Structures are given as C-alpha cells and as structure tokens.
C-alpha cells in the first residue's frame, strides 16, 4: 500500500485531548499532504508530543477526529502500522542489548525479512554513524548515540510516514545537518515526516511549519512564508546616520503599504507589503526629508524571532477580550 | 514471527547477564550444600538442672532418670535451691530446669498425679513444641521406672506361687499317705489343703495370663502355655473335687499320679510369666520407626526439591514481574503500541523465553542436587520435567500479573519479595501445608510453589505418580494467570489512553 499523492496523509478535525482537567490539545485542525516535512514548533509543554501520540494511536482523542491514511489510528491494522514509524522523545530501547541487537529486534518487530535485514541494518547504521559501535551495549552508549540508534530503529522498516519527536535533541550540529539531509532525501522519495522540535531554527529545513502554543495550533504555514505571516509583510531594515523626526515616522505609518514602523538601535524596522516594490519609495521619501541613510535592505528575521513574535501575538490576542488595550 | 522476536529478545536480554544466571544456579546449590553439611538431625541435648525437695529420695535417683532420657538431656546436677536454679536458667547457664514436687507421695496417695515442672527460655515455637514433647517423653520414662519398681514388687508378691505349688505337692503326698493308712480325718485335712492351694494357683495363673490377653500372641506359644496353665489348674480343681466326693483308697491313689503331673505343668508354665523383666512388663512396647521410602536420609533430601522449585518460582515471578513494568518505565511500551504486534504475541514470546531459560536453570540445579548432593531421584525425568515446567509456567504468569499491577519496578520487586516470604511460610517449605487452615490455606493455594513443592517431593523422593488433583490445580492456576496477564497486557499495550 502506498500513499495516494492526491489524498492527505493526516487530517485532524477539531481535535481535543484532555488529561483530567488539563487540556493538552485544543480544537486542532490540521491537514498534512504526502511528501512534505512538517515541523511542529512551540514552547515546551504546548502539546507537540501529545499531537503526535494522538496521530500514532497511542493516545485517543477526547473529542474531534484524527485520521491517518484515512483511518482512525486507534483502529490501525498491522499493515497500516507497518506504514509509519515513530521515534519517541526519549531513547526507548533495551539497555542490555547491543546496538545491533536492538536494531535486529526492531526490524524483526516490523517483519523485515531475514535476507534483507543485514544489508538494511548496515545501511541505517551508516546513516546514524554507529557502524563501528554495533557490538556495544546500549547501556554503554552515550546519550547522543542512543538518540541516533532510536532514529535508526524508527527508520529501519522504511516507513512512508515518519513521526520524529525531537529527533536531533542531543545530537551534535554536524550530525544534525546529516540527519536533516537524510530527512530531505526521504521527503524527496515521497515520505511524509512530522517533526516536533524545540529547535525553532530547524523550521527552515521543513516544508511546512505548524506553530503551537498552549495546546492550540496558532498557524500552519509554508516555512518560507512564516516570517511574512508573523510580521504581516516583508521586513525592511533601515540604518541611519541621523535622527528621524516623529513626523517622518507618522508619515511612513500613514502609507497604505506600510504595516508597521519601529525604532531600532541602528535606525528603523519597517514592515511593508512587498519589499521589492516599496523599498525604493521609502528610500526616496527619507532622502526628501533630509534623513541620511547608511543602508536599506529587506531582511529575513530569524525563526527564533518569528516564533517569539507569533507566540507574543497569540498571547496578546488571547488577552485582548479581558484586557482591552487603552488607546 | 513476532513471538520469535520477543523470545529472542528476552532470551538475549537474560543471557547477557551470565553472573545473574550463575547466581541463580550456584547460589541455591551452595545454600543447600551448606545446610546439608551444617544441619544436625539429632535432637539438641539440653543442659538440665533438676530441683528436688530436701531429703527426697529423688535427689539420689534423678541422675539415673536423666541417664534414661539422655537423648534429650545433658545432666547438669540436682539441687534443692530452686532460686539458684532459676538464676542459672535466666543466666543462660542451663537450658532446662526440672522441678520435682515437694511431697509427691502424698499427692499420689490422695489420688492425684504429682506435677513435675519444666521451665525453659526458648521462644522459637518449634523448639517449644520439641521441649513439650521431650518433657512428656521424659516424664513417661520416669513414670515407667517407678511403675517398673512397683511391678517388680508385685512379682515378688507373685513369687510365693511356687510355694503354693510346693504346698500342693506336699498335700498330694499327705493325701496319698492318709488314704493308704485309711485315716479319714487326715484325708479330709489333706484334701482341704489341696483345695486351698488349687484356689491360690487359680488366682495367680489368671493374673499372669492376663498379659497374654492384653498383648496378643501372634505365634500362639504364650497362649498355649496360658491355656495349658489354666487347663491344668481346672483339671486339678476337678480332681480334688472328685477325690473329695469319693475318698476311697482306690479312687484317690488313681488320681494322685495325675495330680503330680498337673502340678509339674503349673510350676513350669508359671515360671515363664514371673521371670519376665518388670521393666519390660511396664513398657512392653517400644517404637522402631522406619521410613518406607528408600534412600531418603539427610535433611538435604527433603529440602532440596523444595529449594529447587522455590527457586524456579522466584525466577518466573521476578522476571515476569519486572518485564512489563521495566519496559513501561523505559518507554518501550509506546513502541509496541505503534508496532504491528499484539499483546498475545508479546506475552507468548516472553513466556517462551522465560520458560526456556527457567527450564535450563531448573535442569542445571536439579542435576547438581542429584549428582553432587546425592538427593534421590525416584521417578522419571519426564514427571519431574512436567512438575517443574508447570510450576514455572504458573509462576511466570503470576509475575506478569504482578508486573501489570505494579506502577514501578520498585513496587514489582516489593511484591516479588512478599511472594517469597509467603512461600516460605505457606508453601510447605518449613511447615507442612496440612497445618494450615482458613486464610492461611487460601494463601497457600495462591502460590504456585505450594503445588509444585508437594508434587516434586512426591515424585522425586517417593517415586509416586504425579498427584492428579494438584496437577490440574496448578494447570488451572497457570491458565488463569495467563488469562489475567493477557488482559493486563492488552490494557497496557493494545488500547490507546
């Protein structure tokens, strides 16, 4: 059975998950198409792992619905279980078994034929750089090695849909980049990856980013559109050698294509609808007002900044009804 | 395929701990060997001080009493100072203090038994029972000594029966003379004397032959003597009566010869009864206990099968108990939940792994106790394998139930220790299951080792067939534990929360 490229792999509809009085997932609506890497970012405890556990069938929804391959994950058949892999957040293998023994167990669990197994295990060990450590007991491996082995165990049966919960936690930057390169390879082969991560910067490697806060899905955006969504447009940074009169800032703000104007240490940060179209006008206007510019460029905010902005906006919008802003 | 996956994984997991496996085989073997070498199967002789009243003849006799019960008592002297004796006891210098009553004769003459007090400081209930038992035996021994003396006196009293025979012989001679001389009055006197002697003989013979009636006489020799005595006395009495009714010389002379024969018979038969030792008469029976099972001798023979089966139970319970709870703590249960594997495959895989390893441990342990400790093996290896295998199966099931009911491995270990403690008390390891009743008996039935221990001792030591009821009981237990384990595993692995 393979993924239908026209059908979403995962759909969530008003998905709610409560643990007692605690709401872990709050009316999540999500659609994941095949062949993409979906990054799920959000602060610790925001519900990323619970969302994935619900999608795997480990946890059942309190209300709403989640479908994976068109089926409720709780009702998965063995054949459907074979189609996805799940890497939990913590290393979850057997400390008394060797690296090879753990992988053998996992491949056997997923019914990998004996004749293909050896080759596959070496392939996957190569990926996680553990080939020379294959005889080592897991208990004797470092935390990073255990993490890599857990990833290998998740991928050993070559699943179509891969849930990787914090896959690069505790992994050095070089190997992290190698992981992501492999994730992209998998994506290019048509696999779908759902990757909850606290490394907001890794969102750049994703095709789609879902941002969560307090159990809610704030937004789902293509990675390259996330900053634009967060800021409401393109960000133009203006470095100045002179002071800007308040009247100039007011004039800038009054333009229909300007979303916001903020004073920074080096000058101004102006959010506009389209930086290519609007930057020349800003440059001309400031010059006409006698303001001396050092530079004016469109900038891509870091994902950390984007993330912080989104979280703050979300928090502000939730406060708004109770705490009306006094103009 | 998944069953094999779990079987291999669990087997490798355990086999990667060779020291653990070695401990499980060598540990119990060494314990049993040390126990067998160090256990003393003769009763502990207790240092005993006797207290008797001032001037009592017991002061002289007590040492001989103590010698008679020397298996239990190490004689440490006799004193009249009860307070001193008690201090000795409390100071731990003696183990037993035996106090004779002040005036035992007065008590006995009043128709009551005189009490001998035995005081000790042992708290162990088994030791206390042993002391009570040994005390009773000791007192019985002393009683029999006294009774022996009384009976010996009685035999002295009975001894004049030979005189009666002599008197009867003399009366026969007198009768013969009187009849020959046609002296009627002398004839009457002789007949009276003969009649009186015959009555005395009748009484003595009846008392002595009562022993035959009480003890029975398997080969009939004593009965023959007894019957001969009684018949002789009766015929003697009839002859005397016949002589009295027809005291003619012709009649009496004809009978005198027969009377002498009868008196000879009575004299020889009576001697056989009066010559019996009085000590034997008062204790005509003694116990000679034999075991109707060959080759079972040392204490190790009794405890080794129990230790082997207890070890197997604890292996099954411990590994079963830690299995799921450990995996849950490691988070591996989440992997099982998403993998194409179900609870029954997981459970069966684990069962098979633990059964295989447990069987190997059991076989190694059994080989050691049979070959090195020389514990007898009276039945077929097949019967032993059935008992051990079924016990292991039920124990693993109990372990899984514990595992699925435990929230942490510490809790599972705690439950396992409780099972071990309960097994020592309720399985028949130290105390017979027959001594248990009510709740204790129910607890006994909740332990696989109770069934396994009784069956293994029976088949291994007695060579008996496997008890059908116990076999069915243990099998049912194993199946029930498996079903509960499966329910728990489904709950843990199969269903989303």
Short recap of the structure:
The complex is a heterodimer of chains A (327) and B (497). With 327 residues, chain A is an alpha/beta fold.
Helical percent range of chain A? 25-40%
* Helix-strand topology string of chain A: EEEHEHEHHHEHEEEHEHEEHEH
Q: Calculate Rg of chain B over CA atoms.
A: 38 Å
Q: Summarize the main sheet of chain B.
A: 4 strands, mixed
Biggest interface, chains and residues, is: A-B, 32 and 24 residues
Instruction: Output the number of helix runs of chain B.
Output: 19
User: How do the strands line up in the largest sheet of chain A?
Assistant: 5-6-7-3-8-9
Strand order of the largest sheet of chain B: 2-1-3-4
Distance between the termini of chain B: 27 Å
Order of helices and strands of chain B: HHEHEHEHEHHHHHHHHHHHHHH
Oligomer type: heterodimer
Name the overall outline of chain B. Answer: elongated
The count of β-strands of chain A is: 13
Q: Structural class of the secondary structure composition of chain A?
A: alpha/beta
Class of secondary structure makeup of chain B: mainly alpha
Strand proportion of chain A, as a percent range, falls in 25-35%
DSSP helical segment count of chain A: 10
Report the average pLDDT across residues of chain B. 84
What percent of residues of chain B adopt helix (DSSP H or I)?
Answer: over 70%
The share of residues in extended strands of chain B comes to: under 5%
Largest sheet: number of strands, sense, barrel closure of chain A: 6 strands, mixed
List the helices and strands and how they pair.
The complex is a heterodimer of chains A (327) and B (497).
Chain A: E1 10-19, E2 22-32, E3 37-41, H1 48-56, E4 63-68, H2 78-81, E5 84-87, H3 99-109, H4 114-127, H5 143-155, E6 161-164, H6 173-188, E7 192-197, E8 208-213, E9 216-222, H7 226-231, E10 234-240, H8 246-253, E11 258-263, E12 267-272, H9 275-288, E13 293-299, H10 303-319
Parallel strand pairs in A: 3-7, 3-8, 5-6, 6-7
Antiparallel strand pairs in A: 1-2, 1-4, 8-9, 10-12, 10-13, 11-12
Helix pairs in contact in A: 3-5
Chain B: H1 2-15, H2 18-38, E1 46-51, H3 58-68, E2 73-79, H4 82-90, E3 96-99, H5 104-109, E4 117-120, H6 125-158, H7 161-180, H8 184-215, H9 221-245, H10 249-274, H11 278-282, H12 299-330, H13 332-338, H14 343-371, H15 381-405, H16 409-426, H17 439-445, H18 448-462, H19 468-494
Parallel strand pairs in B: 1-2, 1-3
Antiparallel strand pairs in B: 3-4
